[in-house]
Amino acid sequence: MEQGQRKPFSESVPAFHGRPLPEAAVPVGYAALIDAFGLAAPIPIRLAAIGPRHKVYEADDWKLYTPRHRPDASLIGHLTFALRYEGLDLAVLKTLFQATGPEPIAGIVRAAPTSIYTRRIWFLYEWLLAARLDLPDATNGAYALVVDPDQQWAAEGTTSSRHRVKNNLPGTPAFCPLIFRTPLLEQLVARDLGAEARRIVADVPADLLARTAAFLLLKDSRSSFQIEGEDPPRDRIQRWGQVIGQAGRYPIDRAELERLQRIVIGDARFVHLGLRDQGGFVGEHDRLDGSPIPDHISARHEDLPALVDGLTAFDRQAAPNLDVILAAAALAFGFVYIHPFEDGNGRLHRYLIHHVLAEREFNPPGLVFPISAVILDRIDDYRRVLESYSRRILPLVRWRATNQGNVEVLNETADFYRYFDATPHAEFLFECVARTIDIDLPAETAFLKSYDSFKAQVKDMIEMPDRVLDLLYRFLRQNGGRLSKRAREKEFAGFTDDEAMRIEAIYANL
């Protein structure tokens, strides 16, 4: 049995940790390592097993391989399988390395010092644990990529001559979410949505574009509050919209995030500003005794400075090497899982999406995509995406209730927030951005063109103030292009029957 291993590697089973297999099969790779070493790490979204059939197929979050794919029932066998077929799961790997200790990993490297897989394992051990194995520097073997770019999105990379690898991880040990290549993401990245947006607005007159931008900005700000169940006064919505409009101007660090939180909160008499100094969770309280019922438990307050430093490093060093929307998803959803503040985390999480898009000049100049408005329309999908990771880490967090109805975390959890699979989050955000470009932006510019044409034609008939024209247009939109009997008798009693018919015809022909 390997050092630190609690039990032998599994044979054929019908289910794994409560997750049924499509048919009885042998868990391999990460599943086998989690089970054999009793790893307290989030179980990957997709697991691998060796099935009885002679074909590879996917079903129910499992990928079943053929008997000829079965690895050796050993630490190196399952590690190699995982790296070759399942990509990198940094949370599982770090927990595994902590369980094995250094010598089994050093022994793997000594046994096959030129193997691409052993050198990647060696590098990952030292990178994740910030500990040097008792090994001389590698002298042979072609340089290997740490992240397989055919499986997961990677950075450009830097060379590590000690391991003869190219470190193309899209982050630092302090914060490094990973995103798998999926058909949906491949398709959306290939579209080059930023270029599409610039083409859409290229022929829009400057004054019309400015009005479009103002409306979309206000719409996004209002929606961001509505997602949190708030209905603030218009001036507060406008102030937050102005902040969103300045996204990307300042680098993200602790001071900037705290500045933004002060703006978000406004009246802070009952809110602690700055990084939390106690636990945090998302959920409800028991109606009888006020005890917490968490759906998500935030990072420990002791870990917040290091985690925020990780977000800062990602924004400044790693994000520029990734596709802009992938980078925005990793940064923004990483932030909301960490939940560094007592209040304001949701709006700041969505602000970070705007920050990355603007910082990387994805938006056409002066334009903000109404991402929050799309999220509000897809609120159930948004919650499912958030829960896709929260529900996997919640069973691993040991906690107790405090007298204040909060939670106190009792185990080390920082790595849960540093290393997560951001693939569902990237797909969701890409779809939201695509909708703003495919639907919202063209629809708003078309609406304003139509509205301007309506106003001009009506004014040729009857001179009236803009506020009355606005009301007239709204009434027609709300009533299918017809003026109701009530409107004719009250707000627009001055219209003749002929004028009313002509106005309805103008609207119909827009």
TrEMBL record:
Keywords: ATP-binding, Nucleotide-binding. GO terms for molecular function: ATP binding. ATP binds at residues 343-350. Pfam families: Fic. The active site is at residue 339. It comes from the Bacteria. Transmembrane segments: none annotated. Residues 252-402 form the Fido domain. PANTHER family: FIDO DOMAIN-CONTAINING PROTEIN, FIDO DOMAIN-CONTAINING PROTEIN DDB_G0283145. This is Cell filamentation protein Fic. It comes from Rhizobium lusitanum.
